[in-house]
Amino acid sequence: MLRYARNILLPGVGELGQQRLLSARVAVVGAGGIGSASLFYLAAAGVGHICIVDGDTVELTNLQRQILHRQSDLGRRKVESARDALTALNSHCQLEIFDAWLDATNIHNILGGYDVVLDASDNFQTRFLVADFCWKNEISLVSAAATGFHGQLLVVVPYEGNPCYRCLFPGPPPEEAAPTSDQVGILGAVAGVIGRVQALEALKLLLGLDSDLSHRFLSYDALKGSTVRLGNCMVNTVK
What we know:
This protein is an alpha/beta fold.
């Protein structure tokens, strides 16, 4: 009660809402820049079961933005570094780790049965794989991306009449139209901003609070300090 007192004071949370967070199961794909921020806030909020999926190791260039990891973690598997950091923050969270890249052969075993999935991956192949899986299996998805000084976020709630991920992005864009942070860079705090919003949207879903971002696409411009919600997404009623 004391630890989560500031959550419980909120009319949209209360003791019942905090219990819902405690019993929730959330999976986060990617323990990099965006995933670091979202994972920290999910654990801090008291989400009871968190799954971390990543197949990479901690490198020196990661430390500029991937705040889950420390200099002493260089060379370690990211899921192990992330698990240790989150355990130090909140030992009451049950943490499950998968040191693997998602593909069609393992995604069901890894992501099946979760209440919400957060996609913080850094490539379109994984984003579309996760989005299609969540839609078909009726799992709510919060998908986020960031590069340079910009970030994007979309909430997908797989109910009849709601838009799916492919309603906005029918397919991956050409590689030259979507450069990665390895190519153009990224200001670390941008990933942090988007990761925090991603965690917030996931918590709202778990608490049963409405989100306007389930029908709008959020675009963040760090240089202008502006957040824009772009129009109503077209609806795909075919599952």
